[in-house]
Protein 1
Amino acid sequence: MIEIRDLSRRYGPRTAVDGLTFTVAPGRVTGFLGPNGAGKSTTLRMILGLERPSGGRALVLGRPYRELREPLRRVGALLDAGAAHPGRSARSHLAAVAASNRLPAWRVAEVLDLTGLASAARRRVGSFSLGMKQRLGIAVALLGDPEVLLLDEPVNGLDPEGIHWIRTLMRELAADGRTVLVSSHLMSEMALTADHLIVIGQGRLITDTPTADFLAAAARSDVLVRSSAPERLARLLADQGASVRREDGNALAVTGLDPRTIGELAAAAGLGVHELAVRTASLEEAFMEITGTAVEYRATTTGATATAAGSTTGTAATTTTDGTHAS
């Protein structure tokens, strides 16, 4: 596992990481989230011994990374997809890394095949697209078949097939008992991939919790009801202690009552219900809510942009009364 204890990093008067403490356990995908400037990359670099902490410690498999013997067999990392000589072929780059870490040459062919780069193995890295460079960086991380993986923005530049592949790969590695820590700004992908979330802001820990608990605690949840008699239904539900808000058309947003109770009340009163669905906020909405006061680089918008943004709602996952899901 990865253990972070009171970890800090200062650059002169600026504190990039401020007393972080958390543990990344094996057997699950842990998402490492935070706004720009939150200290994620600095933390990852300290875990890998590329930055010296100003205080605290970062342990991998019980010891500092620099003390690991044959570290590529223990820890694989992707921090910079461009960290390969552009004049080398993908095969040559991997072969050099393998030779310098006393890894078997046959492993090069395995990771090229695993990452989908076998057909491009002889091409120069300088001719690669961003997505292909990402695949090569992931191949390097996997070269030693490590117990621990640290991936910084692994889906950056990947096409839909590549995103599905890396998502499946991370979950399979975690299911195999490995420790997987992934940093990403792509909230929709983290919602599908991460079992656990560590969120930081301005160098400090905001939350360390299972993804499902994070969504339940940080985001709104209500029931969307569409009825042929919205006014009458709204009064009926309000009389039962529910909070009811009118939305566009004949829709009601209801909190305080579950879908089954709403449906039974409407049926008993003879009121037609056309739609009844639980709505929960997306991971992006929950993330924005919980990190709102920890954003260091906050952009401004023009009046037109702000108006458009204000009228746009996030995608909500819904559950109908028959148990099916939609978005």
Protein 2
Amino acid sequence: MSDLQADHVPQAGLGLGIDAGGTQTRWALAAPGGAIVAEGASAGLSALQMATGSGREAVRATFSELAAAVLVHGQPARVQAGLTGFGGDGELLQRWLAELLHLQPGAIRFCSDMEIAYRASFAPGQGYLVYAGTGSIGAYIDTDGVFHRAGGRGVVLDDGGGGFWIAREALRHIWRDEDERPGAWRDSPMARAVFDYVGGADWTTSRQFIYGQERGAVGKLALAVAASADTDPAAAAILRRAGEELARLARALLRRFGARPVAVSGRAAALHPSIVAAMRAALPDDLPLTLTEGGAHYAAARMAVDSALDAGPEPDQPLDQ
């Protein structure tokens, strides 16, 4: 961590990168040259939360917590923020974050979280990223900087292979078994792990969990599924299908844009080795496939540094408190 102290004057060239997902929001501060001088995490958030009053309050609260943590280490000159569910309307988000960081809104850029995740693995035109977090998406940025997607349509419609999908498939399997053989869950390591996680073996508890939680909270149930995969054939089968779903996203991009290396990233992809193994088996043998740790918040911080350097000295004064 840096020993920089914030004085509400943007520090020359310091860039803040934010990677906001459904389960966690990670941030990093980068100095000129790209060295990471500080990083941290706060609650997950999504642009979809902006559709409701309670959601907007939650987003603002997360921004406030994040900004306070950042300013302990230094004030950025520029901010690059990747936000899941972002559709292009970032004016209010810019104003909020600018106020909290004592910057002009023009110093802050929002984009899809997939844009920064892609740049953590590839330069434009180099390859395809398949990302599996709470949801899933295939991403390609071409040499003109145009973003192309496969999937990423949301957990209600699809997002096969993501954490929410894994959780939903597990609960579906468990409750279909219960329809046919009440009490079957006691003989299933996956069902016992899932019910322990959600807080009970009755349908009311499962219903409240799957329909009453934010999608990121539901997605975390995939951890329990993965933990039982070595002892429960049903859990193992769900994880194999998750890998096949992720491979489908890569194949869609391969058909459209030709052969390129594939990187797979995200917490859901790394839940169990069988996910990437199934993905590998469903792709051409000669196609390079790499599991990466991501680091999208680092990539965003370095993008912000480059933006600050390209812009030169900031002409506007920091916002008054």
Protein 3
Amino acid sequence: MNKQLMSSVTATVLTTLLGTAGIASAQTLESANSVETANADALETLAASDLQETVSNDAVETASSPRQPQVAIAPSLTTLFPHTVGTSNAATLYVRNIPVLTFIAESSTNAASLDTGFITPEQVLSGEIATTPDHPLARAAAVAQKINALPPETAAELTLKWNHEARAYWVMRGEEAIAPIDAQHILPDSTRNWDQDALQVTNRLRRLVGGAGPLAMANIIGRPQSQFRNTPAPAQSVGQFLQQGIASWYGPGFHGRRSASGERFNQNAMTAAHRTLPFGTQVRVTNLRTGASVVVRINDRGPFTRGRVIDLSRAAAGAIGMIGSGVAPVKVEVLQ
């Protein structure tokens, strides 16, 4: 019995001790979990504090440090193409891939075109393409920069004004001079009529910048009488050759191929295909819907679709506003 009593006492003591130890262990574990939770909360608070401090420091640094500003650059409307005209350096300014204005330098016996192909105005203005300030490419880039800055809705504000002091036409937007038209700044596909050339430059810019309608000769501001200007005589039609009919255009699929004249077709040049006119003939093509006209050189044969009288290059078609329609009623005049 004593042994049973001792066993009961021992069991009770052990149970008590084990129970106490279990409780102590549970309390210790709970305490540890509390510490861990507290530590995690502290770390989270610290991380949030660090993040807030980082954001605050970034804000202070952005406000006070001399970081270079990030300038958003809009897609350029313009490209430049350096070349030569006779013995002079030249550069043609394109707007939406349509030639608008050719810049010509003073005559030089050793003129050499920069062999770069098409370039952007930014390449010239940044100094990536080295030029002198009076080089046609530098002048073209300066005008291109003004054109790129024109919002589309301002296209209808572009006007043509005669500058009596400079003896030149200027494309204007209000009081801002955009581009001159004179002996060193000419329409790439000249009609050999100064008034008409200047008007075409203006109307192309109006259409290409924002889709504005064309101006008429009567809209030229301060247009002088012809006796005050030394301008070439207007081109005349040869004989009685005159055609009216439908014009079409061709481009990408034929670009680089040999034309019927033997030269390679260039969709960006002012050329056209005609069924009978001699190669090299200069013709004026007028869009009867819009009144816009362009002078092209015949260097290919066609079109061979019934009812069509001439097939224009892509650039020439763009110049008279028929890219979208594909065809247009036109008048074709042969020039001297």
